[in-house]
Amino acid sequence: MSFRYTLEFLTVIAIVAFCALFLYTSSTMSGAEFSGSDNVGSEFIAKLTGTPVETFQPLIPQWQPPSGEIESCLFAFQAAIGGILVGGVFGYWIGQKNKA
After folding, report:
1. Fewest CB within a 10 Å sphere: which of 27, 32, 63, 93?
2. What is the domain count for the chain?
3. Whether this model's pTM surpasses 0.70
4. Cβ atoms of 65 and 71 closer than 8 Å
């Protein structure tokens, strides 16, 4: 195996190991719910101060979309813009590498 394919081989092994670890941990967490750091932090502060979690309000109010379809559309739009930016950067790097 040449050095050219060593990096691809290691990348595939890392992706497979990550997927296996994710599947293993998600299968062993029966009944567990995923919660964001906002929920965990709010619950911790509520426990320390003795005030209920419902009284906490965000410093910057967030806009709630009128429906779930709009929310998923905005998420897909955000993912598309991110993919275009990442693809543009990698395309530029590869173009500069091939140019030299």
Report:
1. 63
2. 3
3. no
4. yes
Shared-domain flag, residues 17 and 37: no
Cα separation values, 99 from 4, 5, 55, 90, Å: 19, 22, 59, 14
pLDDT digits (tens, 9 = 90+) for 14-60: 999 999 998 888 777 766 666 666 677 777 888 888 877 776 676 77
Q: What pLDDT digit, counting tens, does each position of 6-17 carry?
A: 888 899 999 999
Amino acid at 3: F
CA distance 51 to 49: 6
Range of the domain at 43: 33-61
